[in-house]
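Quick one: Sulfotransferase domain-containing protein from Microlunatus elymi, structure tokens please.
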Amino acid sequence: MIKSVKTIGRRGVINAGRTAIRGFGMATATWRPDPDFLLIGAKRGGSTSFYFDLITHPQVALLFPRPDRLPKAAATKGIHYFDSNYYRSRRWYASHLPSARARQHQTRQAGGPVVTGEGSPYYLTHPAAAERVARDLASVKLLAVLRDPVLRTHSHWKERVREGQESLPFLDAVEQESSRVGNDAERLRQDPHFYSYPHEQQSYLEQSRYGAALERWFEHFPRSSFLLIKSEDYYADPGSSLNQAAEFLGIEPGRFGHGEPQNAAPGSPLDDDTRLQVEALLRDDAKRLRELTGLTWDWV
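--- reply ---
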């Protein structure tokens, strides 16, 4: 009982602190410039590791409050404004970004221009995110870390199982996806207050259809606004992929640290028959991705 009271007390202090921090951020939102980049995906594709490697660069300004000053469990890369929080104000969004003063100070320390950005991997496949970003951040640079779509699909399902949010076997969950999601995509497009758990957390195949997702983004942004990183290349040679990002963002290459992989989970390989079944479901979209981007990644 005493322990429970103490736990509740700690949570109360933490929540009060978060409220105070957010209130300060909103009060100073006028002096918090828009982000220079968004890391838009993909979920279970390596985006968390990539983001936390990216912010080791001295020319990348951190979100407010700085994730490196928070407990690991509280550190975040994403604001999720353009997917799940678009009903909130732009001041609320700006409250998470570094101030102009902080950026100026970091510019002097780094000896070069500073950029800032956030990573919300649901942006890639949320049906309204691309249009919203284009409306509010027309000149933003967009990055996506894309993983073998079959492995991403399976990893996404495994994450839900670990969290106790998925009871169906893998192929059954894939088969049930469309009935679970229903017409939620249309409701998400029309109503910023509407949230769909099945669309965000159980659309295993849909979030692996990179071609369909990027086609929607390309309707609002030129191809030159995007840097697409293959997850497998990033994991094999982090420095090379991070330097590509540095050049894309206009900061000096070769100044990254490299941390531990984030959100990594024990692997359980797919059997060949299951992989072939999922490949068949994603093959048309893989072709679409190649046609859209010219990339010849040999996943499917």
